[in-house]
């Protein structure tokens, strides 16, 4: 059984963020990708987020699709990421890479100034260097394509697990739907763990609001205290057979993936590591339950008492989370949504007219003195909440009917 894992970074985030100063133990998705066991492109794939500087563009076996940070932050580059992952999953390639352009981008900092071009031979040397690098890149990528194709024939992928944050979470939804429509990939079961999946006010996603039957299990955690305009999260409409687990988590958009600042940004006291620790522990356990491989030495592996202690810490810090409502990345949204209504859903329809939202457990109930559903489940010794065992995934849409 060949299980492939895809790690989708969020907007502006990339593979290097496992060491980013804004996160107390590294941004969650890039950190887990760093801790993955196996060989990249054969066993797993880490995908840089749009707006992160296109640092992984040279690694793609697809047509070059580079955008500046501004356009990337607006969501441009999603299609490039999708095509890249689909090609790696299929193992069949048509080489469309512009290696000369990639080499020039990689050596752009060494490109001589106009004055140097006029007065020295530095520009000719730079041209020779880029041409040589372009040849090396093309050769290396050709070898990699051969390895991937051979691996897919010898050991076909039988399951794909996806994790993502922000637009990376929504990228999981988009990729699952593109797989469902691909003749080579439509029969592969998919599992998804999405952290505060936010498509953005302006985005390039094409199909993410409803998931198909190829998605077998899905976990979605949402930031309870985010109030920025354009940061409305998304809960996709699920197929009746899909098992799901949903819950809020205290904090802002970045708090879930390892930001501990009381503001939820890059300033404030570093007191709020509870949500990041619990989310990471839960994601690691769920991934392992789905068959993905992570370095054992890197795992949180929190026991019940440790998880409950972190939730007790969150309860003691409630005033900080309340104060985060006035801290925003863009501008404060005072009109369209607030509080727990920040999650968008595709409504059920009756006679073609929207009628109601699904009442997903974990994002529609009140859990009393507990912080959230996950807290209540851990208190109740729920096996899935404690250990991430896939066989213990609690419910499907059929259970809501």
Q: Helix content range of the residues, please?
A: 25-40%
With strands numbered from the N-terminus, the spatial order across the biggest sheet is 2-1-3-4-5-7-11
Oligomer: single chain
- In terms of structural class, how would the helical and strand content be classed? alpha/beta
Instruction: Kindly give the count of domains.
Output: 2
Distance between the termini: 34 Å
Shape: globular
How many individual helices? 12
Radius of gyration (CA) equals: 22 Å
Biggest pleated sheet: 7 strands, mixed
Number of strands: 11
Low-confidence stretches: 335-340
> What proportion of the residues form beta strands (DSSP E)?
5-15%
H-E order: EHEHHHHHEHEEEEHHHEEEHHE
What does it look like?
There is one protein chain. This protein is α/β, with parallel strands linked by helices. It has two domains: 2-51 and 157-400, no CATH class; 99-145, no CATH class. The protein is 33% helix and 14% strand. It is built from twelve helices and eleven strands. It has a seven-stranded mixed beta sheet, with helices on both faces. Strands 6-8 form a two-stranded parallel ribbon. Mean pLDDT is 88; it is low at 335-340.
